[in-house]
Amino acid sequence: MDLSKTIRLGGQALPEGILIKGPKYTVIAYRDKSNEIDFVSLEWNFKFFDYLRKIPLIRGLIAIFETFSLSIKSIFVMAEISDDEINLDSIYFKLFIGLMFVVVIFLTLGIIIFVPKLTAGLIAKYFLSSTIFKVWIELFIRFSIFFFYIFLYRFFAIGKKMFQYHAAEHMSIHAYENQELLTKDNLRKFNKEHPRCGTAFLAFVFIYANIVFHIIDFNLAFVFLFLVRLFISLFIISITYETLLLGWKSNKMVFGKIINFPGYILQKITTMNPCDDDLDLAIVATNKCVELHK
Q1: I want to staple 285 with a disulfide (CB 3.0 to 4.6 A). Which of 29, 64, 104, 117 is the partner?
Q2: What residues form the membrane-spanning segments (predicted)?
């Protein structure tokens, strides 16, 4: 396999399978009711995004939009496989994808940004009216919510399986990028963590958001504060993506390792050692995705 001719792959862990995404095609590998491996392929038709992906700052927003929309579409694909009557090509479905993206963004901003701020304000009001105290309480609450959710998810069967799928997906992409034949033994040579993991993206957004929101505080009405922080959040997403892009391109250098380090640490939590069945799914998804791009 000539590495110069390989394609850039990404992936996601799904509740019932593993998704591998290439530049044009996406493959979801899953187990059917008889426990046999099957797969479904999707063609990625956002051609206008091909141009936007080349524009610095804009491409980060495109990346997060694609991630959310692909996640939502994958859920409906799995539902369709289960014989639910869903037309993936209808205009209503595409509008629903857009609506769900907006809802997810607003819920995330609400839970991660504004709940900690309001809670910290109440605590500071009744216990200690120090600005520094309020800042640290808000920071503590924000990270507590985030990590509590992740740790709690590990204790559920569906969460454990998704974290195993997450690791298998990374190991399969590692093997492909290192020109290894995709076998279970070869996959197990590689780490569960991957420098291009979206978890690293999330980790850096968190770090930058906390730095910016605690340095720049606005004494505005709640609605205006929400809009200001929304705009800043989008800018943070863009800067984060550009930073990680540098890390991905210089992964074998000290500079790249420093940039990627927080993402690796977080992936220690969001991945678990996969079993052979998980690796089999990742291998099928990766092989089929590569074949479609030939």
Answers
A1: 29
A2: 57-79, 91-115, 135-156, 197-216, 222-248
Q: How many helices (H) and strands (E) does the chain have?
A: 11, 4
Q: What is the pLDDT of residue 87?
A: 56
Q: For residues 22 and 38, what is the distance between their CA atoms, to the nearest angstrom? A: 18
E-assigned strands of the chain? 10-14, 17-21, 25-31, 37-43
- For residue 19, list its beta bridge partners: 12, 28
As a whole number of angstroms, the distance between CA 109 and CA 102 comes to: 11
pLDDT for the residue 125: 72
Average pLDDT over residues 9-22: 91
CA 257 to chain centre: 20
Confidence of residue 158 (pLDDT cuts 50, 70, 90): confident
Q: Do residues 146 and 112 touch, judged by C-beta distance below 8 A? A: yes
pTM of the model: 0.80
Question: Domain segments of the chain: what residues?
Answer: 3-81+157-292
